[in-house]
Amino acid sequence: MQDWDVIVVGAGAAGLMCAIEAGKRGRKVLVVDHAKKLCEKIRISGGGRCNFTNIHTTASDFISNNKHFCKSALARYTPYDFLDLMAKYQIKHHEKTLGQLFCDNSAQEIIDMLLAECRDAKVSIKNPVSIKGVHPLPEKTGMPNFSLESSEGTLTTHSLVIATGGLSIPKIGATDFGHQIAKQFDIPVTPIRPALVPLTLNEDDKAFCKTLSGISQDCIASVKKQSFRENLLFTHRGLSGPAILQISSYLEPGKSLCIDLLPGQNIEDELTNEQNKKKSLTNVLAPFLSKRFAQEWVDRKSQNRTPADLGSNKLKAIADGIHKWVITPSGDEGYAKAEVTLGGVDTKDLSSATMESKTCPGLFFIGEVVDVTGHLGGFNFQWAWASGHAAGHAV
Ligand code: FDA
Questions:
Q1: Which of 299, 332, 365 is the last residue in one of the domains?
Q2: Whether residue 46 sits in one domain with residue 178
């Protein structure tokens, strides 16, 4: 039997940050993970360069049943705090776009930094370790609160931190362990689904997108009042690219999204312009949409005639089709391709200052397992660092 002050389950971004902060406070900390290779999500993130934070992070970059929940942790651990840590290790980074910070070299530098910080803080890390059961212990002052049946034998702890992330990319070790533990302790879990995920289409739309596969187009993708102006990417399975990943987090299954394929322009003016009336529709559209896109779009929507052949109603319909392309996806590419899991452990049960359960003292949930989901662009790691930091100061 090994007794610990703190056991963290999950050696990902949130779990390691929590362990470092708790270790620095002199707590005896064990981190366990069932994966053979640690921090795989950090390693593969940002195309191998890890978009580790976003300098413009605010609470409005997160989706949660309680939009205020993340504020306290984000205020106490900001992107600049993480940058200070990176500066200590001289890890070079750059801003790609929209405040998104990436490593210049490799995500491995961040993993090495976190593991070095764990060593300095005397944190023990064991993997692969599987947890077969978690049991509450009778309340006794000074005695541990939980016992864990593990492949390493029985482990007991005063604070138990669940940092097992979401369900995306099961092949690198994602499980619903955190959600199951919440349920075991009667802590509610909000409905979960894949988010930041490519969308799949019905056969007709899919065939169209397939012909455009590889083309990327600036657009505004909208669902109700939420919209994102970024690139859309046509793929042979459907729609992807940053604009689509972002809006997927807001798109309820079975509902439609609206795409403006020419934001900030008025294509109806071009279509009705005297100078263009004898040109083919493809040639009028090509300067704005790329020749291949214009060709396919025109072939699909109408025969390739000249604006002069079409009445103003028809031209308006063509312009509307470009500025307000309404599309109803058949689904999404699921957890195998999703960057994150939307929903999770209900924040109603958690303290926003410490991430501790209000109904089960000593039990903490941090990172992606919680119902706090960031937009694309480094926000999910910032939430992992901030929530891990908050719990690390409380355990
Ligand atoms: P994380 O998933 O990092 O860690 C959970 C840990 O728990 C894992 O080590 C896992 O093995 C372990 N675990 C799970 N089940 C267990 C069990 N039953 N027993 C023991 N251990 C268990 N975000 C961002 O901000 N910028 C980016 O560039 C990217 N890029 C990106 C790319 C891809 C392909 C994906 C899939 C995701 C991203 N993300 C991202 C999202 C980001 O990776 C994610 O939100 C954070 O890693 C979440 O950190 P956590 O520590 O909560 O979970």
A1: 332
A2: yes
Encoded amino acid at 133, one letter: G
Residue 314 Cα, ligand 1 centroid: separation in angstroms? 49
E-strand ranges in 123-247 read 124-126, 131-136, 146-150, 153-162, 193-195, 199-200, 216-223, 226-234, 238-240
The structural domain count of the chain equals: 2
The answer to whether residues 185 and 96 belong to one domain is yes
Do 55 and 181 share a domain, yes or no? yes
Atom of ligand 1 nearest to the CA of 173: 11
Atom 35 in ligand 1: which residue has the minimum CA distance?
Answer: 339
If you measure from the C-alpha of residue 125 to the centroid of ligand 1, how many angstroms do you get, rounded to a whole number?
17
Q: For residue 15, what are the domain limits? A: 2-192+341-392
pLDDT digits over 274-291, tens only?
Answer: 999 999 999 999 999 888
Distance 293 CA to ligand 1 centre (A): 36
This prediction's pTM: 0.97
